[in-house]
Design goal:
Six copies of one chain form a homohexamer.
Chain A lengths: L3 E4 L3 E5 L11 E7 L1 H11 L4 E8 L2 H12 L3 E7 L6 E5 L8 E5 L15 H5 L3 E5 L7 H16 L3 E5 L9 H11 L5 E5 H6 L7 H12 L3 E5 L5 E5 L2 E5 L12 H14 L4 H15 L11 H10 L7
Parallel strand pairs in A: 1-4, 1-8, 2-6, 4-5, 8-9, 9-10, 10-11
Antiparallel strand pairs in A: 2-3, 6-7, 11-12, 12-13
Helix pairs in contact in A: 1-8, 8-9, 9-10
Organism (chains A, B, C, D, E, F): Natrarchaeobius chitinivorans
Protein name (chains A, B, C, D, E, F): Sugar kinase
InterPro entries (chains A, B, C, D, E, F): Carb_kinase_PfkB-like, KDG_KDGal_kin_Halo, PfkB_dom, Ribokinase-like
Chain lengths: 317, 317, 317, 317, 317, 317
């Protein structure tokens, strides 16, 4: 039985090596990446048994994705589908002023047809925390219903619900996202949201402290975490706001930083830490993630502890 | 102005290195591959100016495909589209008894919406030969109409029409293919078809000589070429059947062998060779292709001549 | 709960690419390989839930091994150790007349200290089959006792015991192996042994049919399988001998072929097949394994079925 | 018909991966690079149809170079030669304090024998701009005459002549360069020159503004651009000097930065921009180039616009 | 006859590419690395004929190590052993806050049994300088005796003895190191030590100047060099302390920086430089090393001169 | 002091991976290759101390070549030159019917200016055997004189002279080769020549036995070896002809097979073997070479013994 159950799509990520361009690529590095499995992995690395639920095509590509997630240690409980594609995305790394490029190729995927009744809802209701993100309902109208049903089932089973807003402008328009996601808010206990999304999608104003406070008060969340990219995060809980600065990093890959943060935050809360402590570990995990290629936070608890206690390690031999 | 104009889809091909499995792949080799561009490239390598027509997404992936085709020397004349995906396919190499695996991911591509009126039909009508394959009408109902229209336009402009039957069971059922493609036969001058397809899709019986003869007589083609995989080919022309054995090869990649054959056959016919000579060059080009990784026949005229004249070269220094 | 539980060491395998030499290698390909986990994976791929038991160092290298085994789909139940090395082996591929080279570096490993009481013996006793090989007792005197204890525990729990003789001359002398392993024979139900080992280690004479018969009669095994390398296998069961020829293969990697055979044999027996049918599937799985780089049989049940029914597949698209 | 025609040598560039040393390299990355084709590609990426003229050996190496340039989208019009080598250069990347190393291996190349009469001079005279650099006349005495003839032909056909001074100390001595190149100045409309070259080769003094002014006045150019490495550029036109600062970049490869600048400057001038605007786009294109491995500016017009308008993009998804 | 003879272990280093993690590595880059051979190579690159003494297994792995050292130009004089492993170490690169990770796998190596009498002691006594480090006696008790014997033999032959303290906490405890190494001090002429080791292992206090002075006075060394990581070094000689700042570097690999420093320091002293000049060259060599992947300082004398004279080179072509 | 001294050019070899084409290569594998150093390495691997003499550019490329030869264990004694290129060659692997392609780029190399007086002729005269090939005098007229002088010096110092005819049609015409090389014959003791060269260059007729006999009688050689490619060799000595069949091989790389043969033949003769035994070892070494990528025979004496005694090894573990 897992303490954390997450639900969402995981894609095959295809990236040219280094900072080469898609336009002339002669090879792609391949890895699995998706917000909900990234979060499950990060939480698992911090000692929380975690399971990822999804619907995946019964093809070598689908098995490729599930195999990698198992390699990273989490449990997977997937509906194998004979219809629908495996979602992919193309990712091109780049420094300033080019900026990384993402091309989604995730239409008509197996998961886009996933209905709540296809999953073993006991797994969700027996978990301590259920987690999904704003990406899932953006993928299809079926998934909007499924997301709502699963959040509802979780709540009714006494499971805490956590949700990362994760607005993706390449998937839907801000107003459509706003309408869809705010409808889900009453069923959510813990909201994680980027300050940028709070402003541009939900129309809130103010600094991250103010955003956290306004969101928490207006929607009756238990906890709200507002992330500020490379500048740390703010947590609102019991009407109190806590700030956490980011750690200095030599960034290798930004992708998955937010998921590492969220997974670690949930994990430490499940271990019983208070919000400020959980924010500290979450920020440390996010900093470590940035030094690691790929989508997932391949960290150990000891490494996170070391960053929290001393800001990171030197070459040790 | 090109002597040969071809029309069809070219995909991005993604292959794990060597004979590794998709299920555990951590990198993909990337190249462009599609029957119609493969044919144009092979013909071009044998000295026939060739152009490939297509509809391609205006994305780095679409530009990736077009760039590679230009690198191989042909002209490209594409409709750039802001809708529709870039088709891809996953290819896993394997020896006996595993057998290579192909997974198509080519639904909802840009080309599936291509209409004849989007192309500069003068290019087709000013060419000496227009070529497409049975894959194109298999991709969408729109493309069935488009293929028919373009063959018709070519014929009405005095352009010879050549067509490779190329049945793909992962795209459509045999009876659907049979109904669709035989309707196109009256507009086709030169048919290339695998003996296997003549039997299992069109229901003909007999050895390749008989298949060629029956097809030629029944449908009033100018020329029919029946290919026999690694055992050579048979050509029917002016009611005479010509046989050509295959050359011995150290096979590195089978994919594209038929296209190399067809491109070279068309090229040599355009150079004025008779059918038996063209079959000989076509078979030699196919043999060379099998020694080359990827989809396309990166050969030179000199190399083909050398195979025809002496069966191939030794290490020369 | 797993139907098959295996116990043994899995090493990190380090190989120069292609057929390059260790002596000048500038990179190593890395994968996990060990007879007992290879067998578990092959059985799992054929539909039998399988678990691998072992003792592994609590280091990135130990986690590397376990992660890869999980990726391949099996369950792992390992004792994490703070003492002892991760075993490695260097493997150099080569064609004739060079021959592949293996250099073991597996002294003082974590597993060499593994005692039966460190493992949850219920897992063994609740399984339908318990499997280990002659490599395990070759690794340390502690492991000789552990192997004996675990076979005994399995038997007493009603679990069928299967054992691959797997003599490794780089680990011990023939007479030492003979003395140690024949002492284990009374606790073994199913013996798999190479004809070569039956001759040079156990001193039997005759063709594989005779070897199987003599072994089966003399030691009161339930089933004996004598393998003949690339020439198939012979099975002895209920005093009847069954022969199975090998399938033709384009061999990419011989290592793990025997384990693929054994895993598939056990799996099909667990599915209820009789010995001749299980030998057929085992031989087909071994043939597929030879087309796959690395130690493990990354096959699917469908692929094995296809080899059994038609001798393997052609390029299909 | 191309708006921009360039003439010069393009070499095969051989580089050890990352920052490895030539002295121990076991592999080389291969790409095509040459100032004049780099400029054509950059201009073409910014929407100006461009053609590169050259003389190239009729070998796989010569075809390799031409194929890559075609892949990047430009037209190539080359004299295929049966005599003379393909020029190569070895490039070793390095950070401070090592500094990148270039070893030229470009003696006795095919292009070193190129005479003006070998080229279709109409292509030059029908272009809007003809471009070459100070590297071309440094390669052989034949090429000194050829460069002079082609500039003269361009001018007489009403084509604007643009010239990048590009002094290369590994090709010739400063005084030889100074004597040769200043003789060409009367035939040049637009001069691009590094401040360093203006000082050490031509003996001018002062800051870049002063250098631009002195050069412009003394030699009666239409336009002079003085580049200042990573500190931007200065443009002199109609007796007015315009300054442009450089954009901040995460530099991956400096080589080709100047060519990206020049190609973009010419392209924007051809689109009708005034000098300050063209300098802005040129600087933005140069900044993007620095994020891209290899010699050429694989950019899109949209990317350049985004840098000009907002200083570059963040990760967008 | 070599001017510098060094003695110690050289390992095979196995590193995942880039900043990937050991835990998921699918390939390792392989190189040879060991403090004493690194020092010999650096000195040799600066023009001092150098020889490395060691005991190495007579296996492809041992030959791999020796071959690479010969490639880098030094002489090797090794005792080939049929017992004992080749030492390896796993190295994971990482930026802040992760920090590089080293896992030693160097127990039971061939060298751990090396006795002084196995070596041709004339080689040591005929050298001008004999060098080893604090790593050697940390490897086995046999090597403690061997190190002492060789230092003694060197001294008695009139050879200057140089020693890098090189404390490795993964090999032994500080107090054990302190007791062992200070016993060797009377036989050492030139000590190189990190400020950190002087403090945490030897218990000295103060800034590097003070550390150098205290060490020099207390133990009667001829010369003491205290290194300060990326902040340069301090040299004490004839009771005078000299400071040298570090050069700015774009660091690619820190490993081997200290050895590059030490090798260059010894080389320049052997060329007759005074201590401040030798420190300058040593610091320049260390700075160059940081730009080079792997363990060894693949530099040329010209490059070092250029850093000393001008702080490093720009792209030159 | 070396028993074998060889003299000749060693090139940098650049090859696309696998069987890819030069025309589209994006990377080259790099290694050193030259007949005379290949022979020295093969002899050295079989236990004969060997030295290679040459003239090499004082550049990273020249040092790259020398470093690799040292890595393979031989001594190098080179004249470092500040003029002249490092010779390179491009090699494209291919199976039937394509055939491997070699493109030489070895004009104006440093070695082409090498004069006998630049070398320490004592090294030649103190060796037991001096070896060079017909490639050396093909490289320049200076080298024709140098080759003659060195053979003469060797003879006058009592050193046995061995010579591989090695005709290269890409370097010179048959008649030019014939005139030049037969003039050297009186100074040669041991001639190795391919049957093909004996026929097409020297105009002899007959089977290899006859060729050996005719050559031996006509030119008064001590020993003549006629090689028959993959069909073994024939040795003539003391008017007796000995035949040796080739071993069966899985060929990975043909290049360097002849040099492996010759190096081993010389080595075994120096060890005191008679001609038939030396032919057997030479053929075994050549067979092993064919399993090894690159130009050189990275074999061990044990491996050669094993092929001679048992025809090669199986996987051993």
């Amino acid at each position: 039985m897992s303490d954390l159950v997450t639900f969402g799509e995981t894609m095959l990520r295809l990236s040219p090596p280094d900072s080469r361009r898609l336009e002339t690529a002669s090879e792609f590095e391949v890895c699995a990446g998706g917000a909900e499995s990234n979060v499950a992995i990060a939480a698992n690395k911090l000692g929380i048994p975690s399971t990822w639920l999804s619907k995946v095509p019964e093809t070598p590509l689908g098995r490729r994705v599930v195999g990698e997630l198992r390699q990273h240690g989490i449990e997977t409980d997937v509906v194998w589908s004979h219809r629908g594609r495996q979602g992919t995305y193309y990712m091109e790394r780049a420094g300033k002023p080019r900026g990384a490029t993402v091309i989604y190729d995730r239409d008509d995927t197996a998961i886009s047809t996933a209905k709540a009744r296809e999953f073993d809802i006991d797994r969700v209701q027996n978990a301590t925390v259920f987690f999904t993100t704003g990406i899932t309902p953006a993928l299809s109208s079926t998934l909007r219903d499924t997301t709502a049903s699963m959040l509802k089932a979780a709540r009714s089973g006494g499971t805490t619900t956590a949700f990362d807003f994760n607005y993706r402008r390449k998937l839907w328009a801000p107003d459509e996202a706003e309408q869809t996601l705010t409808k889900l808010f009453p069923g959510i206990d813990v909201l994680i949201i980027a300050a940028r999304d709070a402003r541009t999608v939900l129309g809130f104003e103010g600094d991250p402290r103010q955003l956290a406070h306004k969101l928490g008060s207006q929607y009756d969340f238990q906890t709200v975490v507002v992330t500020r990219g490379s500048e740390g995060a703010v947590g609102w809980h019991d009407s109190v706001v806590h700030e956490q600065d980011a750690y200095e990093t030599d960034t290798v890959s930004k992708i998955g930083t937010g998921d590492a943060f969220t997974g670690a935050f949930i994990a430490r809360r499940l271990h019983g830490d208070d919000v400020p402590t959980a924010l500290e570990y979450a920020t440390a995990t996010a900093a470590l993630k940035r030094t690691i290629p790929g989508d997932v936070a391949l960290v150990s608890q000891e490494e996170v502890e070391e960053v929290v206690s001393s800001g990171g390690s030197e070459l040790s031999r």
